Structures are given as structure tokens and as C-alpha cells.
């Protein structure tokens, strides 16, 4: 998703709605143009995701949860992935949280961003990315906090006991992030999809330091994995409840496959990643119209699709003066 306006000043609004007889949703408005809000779901002793990273907004979310009659210290937060609009309460409160082990290192983005300076400098140099473009990225992840919650790592796929022996199934769905997870409740045939499946927009997939070598392939495979589940409704981390689950999953797979072809068509001779990014379409229009932060997202997304094309043998890599270039095979 593009169009982020970093820390745009808006008031934080909470809208708590009981959406089933066993679940409530808190819609947390975010300081972005897009996405506008993040969904936090409460089911008994479990909460799906933890809102935005700032201390103020984490505090307001905690207050809203307690206003609904829950005690923060008696809940278990299941964090779908490490991004800033999902882990806020984990940074500021002593809570019990569980997340995939592949996400743990990325919490250092918020507590010790210097940990990532060297890999990001190497990444920008290798792919010819102007260091000035990374300045918004550095500011974006600097919360000035420490991780206060007790973050227990998940094993590969496992079930949490919840109401029935079938419980919840934690599904590892990498792509958007290396340790992204979805939560499936067989009894209700519902899925909490995090950012994997959204009702309107498509999820950003980027090639970043520490991520997998083929995040686009991972994302498509994760979507296909969901097709093996019987799902009546999907509750995403943003946007609206999805009633046509299978159809929406197929639409997203088709979108990523079509995007792959567009990126392939954007390779004109021997190109670096920025050349290709300029040759394909973006929601804001042309690459030149994107601001600095969104250019970082656009470049990393283009790079992710190029890496997928390299993996399947349709594109080759060539290093020219220390910068990786791409050409059709």
C-alpha cells in the first residue's frame, strides 16, 4: 500500500464494535493517509495485534481495551507481524505476547535502529539506492522505546487452546514480512489475516535486509496455503470484513502474478532497480510523483518482483560498477 504520510497529525479515534457474539473489534485510526486505521480484535483472553507504536497511541488503545472490561495483564496478544501499526502495545506495556520467531530481530528497529545501519547501507549501495531516500526510513522506526512485553516465539505452526480442543491454528504466512502469521479458528471457520489478505487494497511486498530471498514467491505461496482452509469470513488488520474469502484470495494471487508481468515488461535492456521502478505504474501515478518514503517502498517492491523473476529464470543479474543490474534472460 502506498500513500503513507509519516506521522500526519490526526486525533486518535477508537470505534469498538461487537462483530460476533464472541468477538469485539477496535478500529484504531492511524496517523497515515493510508491505511487509515488498524483493526484490533478481542476474543476472550486473546487479542489479535497491538496497534500503533507511539507511547500515546499505545496508551489510548490500552485504555480502550480496559474500558471494555478487560485487564491488560490478563490478556495474551497474538502479533501477526512486526510492523509499526501492529506492535505498539508490546513496546510500552508489560504484556504477554506471542509472535513468530522470524519477527523477533526486527523489534530492534524500534529499540536499537543502529543494529540495521550496516545492512541497510550495504543494501542501498548494492542496488544503487540514494542514501537520502533512507532518511525517512530511519525516522520511521525510531520510537525511543524498549520492548517491555514478554514476547514468546511461536514454533512453526501450532494450535492455541481456545474454547474447543480444535482451538486456534497459527499459520505461518511469510511474504509481507518473514514471520507474518494468520490465525484460523476451525469451529467458526474464520481467519484473522493480518496484512496478508485485505478487502480492497493489496499488501506491499518489499525486498529488505533480513527478509527472505523471494518474498513475492512467499506471498503467493502463503495465499495458496489459505485455499486449503474452509473459510467463511476473513477479518483483516485493515479495511473491512471479507465475506467472499476464496474469491478474494484468488484475486490477490492474480494481482501479484499480473504485477510480475508488468515488472518484467518494465525491463528495457540492462536496468537497475530504479530504472525499472520508473517504467511501471504506481497508485500515486508516476515514480517521480512519489515522496521520499514512498520511493523507498516502490524501489523495495520492484526489487522483490525482480528477485522473483530471477528465481524463476526469466531475468538475469549483472553487476556494473558495484551496482546490481537486471536484464531479461
Automatic annotation (TrEMBL):
- Show the SUPFAM superfamilies listed in the entry: Metallo-hydrolase/oxidoreductase
Protein name per its UniProtKB record: Zn-dependent hydrolase, including glyoxylase
Classification via Gene3D superfamilies: Ribonuclease Z/Hydroxyacylglutathione hydrolase-like, Winged helix-like DNA-binding domain superfamily/Winged helix DNA-binding domain
Domain of life, per UniProt, equals Archaea
Instruction: Name the keywords, alphabetized.
Output: Coiled coil, Hydrolase
Give the classification, highest ranks. Answer: Archaea, Methanobacteriati, Methanobacteriota, Archaeoglobi, Archaeoglobales
Coiled-coil ranges per the record? 235-262
Q: What InterPro entries does UniProt report for this protein, alphabetically? A: Metallo-B-lactamas, NDM-1-like, RibonucZ/Hydroxyglut_hydro, WH-like_DNA-bd_sf
Q: Name one GO molecular function term.
A: hydrolase activity
Amino acid at each position: 500500500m502506498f500513500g503513507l504520510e509519516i506521522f500526519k497529525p490526526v486525533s486518535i479515534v477508537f470505534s469498538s464494535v461487537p462483530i460476533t457474539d464472541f468477538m469485539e473489534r477496535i478500529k484504531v485510526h492511524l496517523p497515515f493517509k493510508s491505511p487509515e486505521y488498524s483493526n484490533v480484535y478481542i476474543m476472550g483472553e486473546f487479542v489479535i495485534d497491538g496497534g500503533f507504536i507511539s507511547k500515546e497511541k499505545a496508551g489510548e488503545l490500552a485504555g480502550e481495551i480496559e474500558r471494555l472490561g478487560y485487564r491488560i495483564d490478563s490478556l495474551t496478544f497474538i502479533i501477526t507481524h512486526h510492523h509499526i501499526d501492529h506492535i505498539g502495545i508490546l513496546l510500552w506495556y508489560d504484556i504477554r505476547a506471542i509472535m513468530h520467531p522470524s519477527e523477533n530481530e526486527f523489534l530492534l528497529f524500534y529499540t536499537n535502529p543502529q543494529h540495521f545501519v550496516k545492512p541497510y547501507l550495504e543494501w542501498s549501495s548494492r542496488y544503487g539506492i540514494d542514501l537520502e531516500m533512507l532518511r525517512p526510513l530511519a525516522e520511521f522506526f525510531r520510537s525511543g522505546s524498549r520492548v517491555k512485553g514478554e514476547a514468546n516465539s511461536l514454533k512453526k505452526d501450532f494450535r492455541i487452546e481456545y474454547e474447543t480442543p480444535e482451538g486456534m491454528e497459527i499459520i505461518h504466512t511469510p511474504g509481507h514480512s518473514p514471520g507474518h502469521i494468520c490465525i484460523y479458528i476451525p469451529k467458526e471457520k474464520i481467519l484473522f489475516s493480518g496484512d496478508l489478505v485485505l478487502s480492497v487494497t493489496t499488501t506491499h511486498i518489499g525486498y529488505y535486509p533480513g527478509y527472505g530471498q523471494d518474498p513475492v514467491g512467499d506471498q503467493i505461496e502463503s495465499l495458496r496455503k489459505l485455499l486449503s482452509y474452509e473459510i467463511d469470513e476473513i477479518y483483516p488488520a485493515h479495511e473491512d470484513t471479507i465475506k467472499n474469502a476464496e474469491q478474494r484470495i484468488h484475486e490477490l494471487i492474480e494481482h501479484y502474478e499480473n504485477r510480475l508481468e508488468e515488472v518484467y515488461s518494465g525491463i528495457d535492456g540492462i536496468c537497475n532497480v530504479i530504472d525499472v521502478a520508473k517504467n511501471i505504474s504506481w497508485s500515486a501515478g508516476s515514480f517521480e510523483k512519489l515522496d521520499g518514503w514512498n520511493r523507498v517502498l516502490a524501489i523495495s517492491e520492484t526489487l522483490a518482483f525482480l528477485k522473483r523473476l530471477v528465481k524463476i529464470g526469466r531475468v538475469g543479474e549483472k553487476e556494473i560498477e558495484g551496482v546490481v543490474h537486471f536484464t531479461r534472460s
